[in-house]
Amino acid sequence: MNKIFKKFVLPLVILTLIVSLAFTAPVFAADDEELKEAAKASALSFLRDVLVFIDLEKYNVTFYHYSFDYAWDWGENTFEQGVHYYIKSPTHQLRFSIHFCNQTPYYVILNGEYQKAVLFPEFDSLTQSNRLKIIQLAKTLVDRYQKWKGDLSLKAAADILSMVNATETTTKTVGSLNFTADWKEDSVSFSWVWQVNGVSAGRLGFTLDRSGLWFSDNRAIYKLGSTDVKVSKEEAIAIALKRVETFSYKARIDLNTSVEVKDFVVVKDKITAELLTWPKEPLVLYPYWSVKLGLDKVYPAFVDAIHVGIWADTGEVFFCEPIGWGGPVSAHGSSTETQPKGDVGDGEATARQTWQTSVIVVAAVVVTATVLGVAVLKRKRRQ
């Protein structure tokens, strides 16, 4: 019995432990109280030192939720945290949420809309005077963020607000920094994109309206893997047009019937190409051409364009998808490429799915080891 255990069962148990550790042994623990408290402290610091337009003397700040997810698709040992607070006054309540990647903040929301709280009354009447007040608020916000973060590159982002007429929708490039102010009827969005060789090396942006703030800084997460652009815009369009000649997708007509859609007619005046970045590997960005080919009519599943992604350094097509009214179509495509979807925050679902898959694999190994061990023991006993 002892020999059987050493020869058959013990090796299976060791194999099970190795596989378990390979799948489920991250550096950080989800229930790490120290990580949680550090995130809460950083969130309150951001609220106090950056969002200076909130007078905390008039509010009661209450912690209400903390989340932790391993973001496996972002990279090994990469994790995301979310910290959420209620900010209450006698008349209204705000929600404050901040998200971290490996303890670095990258996305912030301050919102009072669901209780109709008014944070920025200037948006009730966007006169020139009120627009100037909003510009000053934006400059203060970037100044405070720069000091809080200790990032000297952000000084140029604040300075550009004084250099351009940002009270109207405008785009301005100063050095390697591309600035955009986009005014709507009841909101404004500001964005700063740092560029190297025409390639985006990071983006800071925020949107303001009467009831809230949405703030993001993806430079905290991503690094630029390459700035090589060996494929021109014209070459990228030619590659996309060639790819769409053999592209098809399946559109569901009813519950039981699907049709293959192909032979698209592209309208040359409806073609656009934009140089963007996307990860080839976790958290490392590379330039690619996003080419949208407008079509001559609306095809099944309300498709009116084909979206093609082409790596700017190699000319390789890495996704080709139909676009319908309102965005990408969830038609059954025959294309094997995958289209970029969403931003950093979309890693949560994939991380959870990967974690669940890991648990299933480990469970399968454990069960297999147990069954084999029992089978060997029974066989030996019969002999």
Overall mean confidence score, pLDDT: 80
What profile does the largest beta sheet have? 9 strands, antiparallel
Low-confidence stretches: 17-27, 331-339, 341-372, 374-382
Radius of gyration: 26 Å
Number of helices: 6
Order of helices and strands: HHEEEEHHEEEEEEHEEEEEEEEH
Q: Per DSSP, what share of the residues sits in E-state strands of 2 or more residues?
A: 35-45%
As laid out across the biggest beta sheet, the strand order is 1-2-3-4-9-8-7-6-5
User: What is the straight-line distance between the termini?
Assistant: 12 Å
Overall geometry comes to globular
**What is the number of E strands?**
18
Helix content: 25-40%
Strand pairing plus helix content: what structural class?
Answer: alpha+beta
Question: How many structural domains are formed by the residues?
Answer: 2
